[in-house]
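User: Here's a chain of 184 residues. Predict its fold as tokens.
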Amino acid sequence: MTDVFADASTISASDAEVQSISTLADKAIELQAEIDSLGEVLAERSRELRVILDAQLPVAMDEAGCEEFKASNGAKIKLQQFVNAAIQGEHQEEAFDWLRDNGHGDLIKRELKLALARGQDNVAPEIIAVLKAQFGMVPDDKTGVHPQTLMAFCKEQLADGKELPASLFNVYVGRRAKITPRKD
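Assistant: Prediction complete.
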């Protein structure tokens, strides 16, 4: 195999092969730039739509004195009230206290999460049993292997020449070109 960072002029490939690689790399760079641009365009269009729906149309309809409107294209427009609410992080405890003090404490949901280190998986049943016995609570028990951890493990096992059971692990080994566009 040739040097990964070889210049096209130094590898022993035909002009057609070099041209094909260059064309594919250019197309990949172009597609990535287009995807990035589309994400920005989508975000901007979403902001524009929100301004029209949440500000401009309600103001225009208020000025016209109507709550409902049928446009010339047949579209029906109706003003509806909506409420968005959030508790700001720096006021969270104050807000929770207010909810509790005013009889709305049942709105507060608390989720406890306990991360067990590698090798501590065996203590989980004991913890669950204690919670059940002492508090009558059965925690949500999610067990899993983080995808990045699994990929690193599989990569390591394969590099060491060890086989993994195909029926248990959906392992795909492939190659992917990474292209770093020239900085102008």
